Nicotinate phosphoribosyltransferase (Streptomyces indicus), 884 residues
Amino acid sequence: MNTADLGLPVDVPSTALFTDQYELTMLQAALKAGTAERRSVFEAFTRRLPEGRRYGVVAGTGRVLDAVENFRFDAAVLDFLRERAIVDEPTLEWLADYRFRGDIWGYPEGEVYFPGSPILRVEGSFAECVLLETVILSILNHDSAIAAAASRMSAAAGSRGLIEMGARRTHELAAVAASRAAYVGGFNSTSDLAAGFRYGIPTVGTSAHAFTLLHDSERDAFTAQVESLGRGTTLLVDTYDVTEAVRLAVEVAGPELGAVRIDSGDLLLVAHRVRQQLDELGAARTKIVVTSDLDEYAIASLAAAPVDAYGVGTQLVTGSGHPTCSMVYKLVARAESADVNAPLVPVAKKSLGAKSSIGGRKWAARRLDRDGVAEAEVIGTGEVPGELADRQLQVELVKGGEVVGREPLDVVRDRHAAARAGLPLSATQLSRGEAVIPTEYL
Amino acid sequence: MNTADLGLPVDVPSTALFTDQYELTMLQAALKAGTAERRSVFEAFTRRLPEGRRYGVVAGTGRVLDAVENFRFDAAVLDFLRERAIVDEPTLEWLADYRFRGDIWGYPEGEVYFPGSPILRVEGSFAECVLLETVILSILNHDSAIAAAASRMSAAAGSRGLIEMGARRTHELAAVAASRAAYVGGFNSTSDLAAGFRYGIPTVGTSAHAFTLLHDSERDAFTAQVESLGRGTTLLVDTYDVTEAVRLAVEVAGPELGAVRIDSGDLLLVAHRVRQQLDELGAARTKIVVTSDLDEYAIASLAAAPVDAYGVGTQLVTGSGHPTCSMVYKLVARAESADVNAPLVPVAKKSLGAKSSIGGRKWAARRLDRDGVAEAEVIGTGEVPGELADRQLQVELVKGGEVVGREPLDVVRDRHAAARAGLPLSATQLSRGEAVIPTEYL
């Protein structure tokens, strides 16, 4: 089954209520004031990377496109807004006809980003753009956080397999999005069946300690598993005594045993012992999977251990210390009046402190050095300088309300691998540091 | 509108795929081995609280009941499992008829918990219970993490209002569950319309900086907002100059202005200045809402500031440093055979280290001191001692597959407030420490 067939479009319910109430009250006030139809430009960007991180990963764009397409106010939603008196009748009438008819440009999903990168640019009337703020930020902030953690883990894992198995550690639907983002970031598979169903991500899984405990002996459990799932299965060997379990596993399944899984203890030490034991038992091709509270640092520290694959749960779905990004969605330009030909005026919040931003519709390009390695994220307003024209980062995603930027998840995953490979080598160092390339404003 | 009317049951799709693949492969192997029907007891509990936390908050139980009720394998799901060859035909046939017919007992939602507390106990055949592991843990681990953060924040806020506004910082559906958990933990309202729609939580919201920037002047923006939303609205006063904005806000809305919102700067200092200015302008009843990157520590530090309500986003929905709990779902007892009258045998993983657990079906009670304050969480197997019989913590939630423990969210919210009030006073200290009462095993 191909991810392109299954991935998109998926069954997304109306996304119109994934919205902060103030988006609707602003709409109501702007409709009354005659300013709602002013042509506007909103941009999603982050002012900083999470502390210590060297790059960010754009993820969730495909889900944003689904959300925009499904952002409709049906009767049940309108009734709710009316009963609660959240907005007035003219606003309800306006919402009943709502669909986004504007344009969206953005970094393609899987691309890396830096402070200030205009990851998404949404253009249309103020009214139609402002409504999308909450759901766009929900998706980008969550999915990009998970993808960034996944990318670090996949850099640390090198060519070894990475299994996403964090569903039980996060909200049941956040888990599905997390599997998707992990796949973008370089994971190979997931334990989450819903992620397999919705996005075509390869799913894996064999057994837990409960299965061993259900049976009268470990031998009974291993025999039951091998008889049902075949010799290529993965047997969990740390319910009682690991050495005895490994011996038993090979006795029951033979040297064709697919893998053993270790879920506790000093993984470095245990992996070495188990590898030696497996080799001595003639099971040289039986793989070792480890799965206990791993993060990118633990994965890196196991680089010298005879481990074939890592299963990662908690630290993946919680963004390895950074469960959200700090992306914001800001009005950066708007027309002088509701006239369709009125010129755009750059706007920006001007209060003191860290929350100020730069007005005007932005372009972004990545400047490369002579070896083709990224050396700066260049952001500007107005004309793109000629020497950067072919390295622009934004692509068209929605045109006049129609989604034009949908793509298979494997394309996104490959893009991320390529984008990360195009950064200076220090990008994948796990030590804390600044963004690996500077952001320059032209 | 009453939360009891809206809250439950809600429109939950089939939850059967919010499941790790190994639950299904274990099922297949157990069906073939003839062990699938062994009567079993699974328990959800946590071995430890997040570092430094004094108590945990049970949240998500109501959502678990929805998930269990909707855990069915329809044709689309079965086709997916067949196409991917995840399980064999006899297993697919078994799944087609699946509904949970067992019993669930647990701590009532809103109750506090400690290390080892048997928060949920699921009893039935191994087959029917093991399938529920992933979705039960997803819900409890997510929702309880958010509720714990919310509870700390609400203790710090005292009688002041708390608004949940973190939707944009987490997955769009996790945000809805987070609003619900925040309400359980003591928040008063949410910005998230979907949380209002699904759970009847009061929603609030007026305007963002974009609304001010849309207009030709701050005066135009304030005038537009007041004309549409009334003088009782909340005006955002930090787009340009706070002092000028406050002056203008009272000029436009009059002293009946509902509130001003401050979203940046040194909130302590700015709140004092704004309060003084409002009082001097005769707007003594105009409230002050602050909303910039708050957590429980920031809320506590503003206790002496003239603030009326706090809006909390990122730190709420990310669990204020602990975005997930470490609840596990373990087989603790199972029958000797598939015979319905076969006696139960306690079982437990016996490997070394932190992952061992205690076998046997557990009861739990809270022992109080002479003043009625909690002094220990008492957990045991077998008979409940007479002096603890009236303080047992587990209630019946599902009986023979039928949900019997559903309750309105306001009841849950009140229960949490009472449970927290029954703990030693040091429970709500924000300083890091151990669990505020010990867990004793009888």
